[in-house]
Amino acid sequence: xxxxxxxxxxxxxxxxxxxxxxxxxxxxxxxxxxxxxxxxxxxxxxxxxxxxxxxxxxxxxxxxxxxxxxxxxxxxxxxxxxxxxxxxxxxxxxxxxxxxxxxxxxxxxxxxxxxxxxxxxxxxxxxxxxx
Length: 131
Ligand code: ZN
Fold this sequence. Notes:
The protein is of the alpha+beta class. Helix content is about 30%, strand content about 25%. It contains 4 helices and 5 strands, in the order αββαβαββα. The chain has a 5-stranded mixed sheet. Zinc ion binds near residues 55, 86 and 89.
């Protein structure tokens, strides 16, 4: 699967986002280590702290399928000309399973930049702290 294929899956997921408050509905497409792609979208709530990000929705769906290793994650919003990078909480959630996952951060015009999670989140807090 090419980067563009994965991004297209994120674009499709964003169409289902529920984001009446921020208007920044996002879609995420998570490529698991076995090639399975799992998607998620923003699910906002009137109690804003109860909002679920697209990336977290995708991770939870993947784990429910028994997937715990991830290669790439594409994140997209049709309403932002900024490159959509995962928020701090999503970075932490991703780090639990794949600290070296590649992030494809997409703008509304389809252009994107790529990062390794580890580069956006150096010295991450991890399960190694419990060992
Ligand atoms: Zn987030």
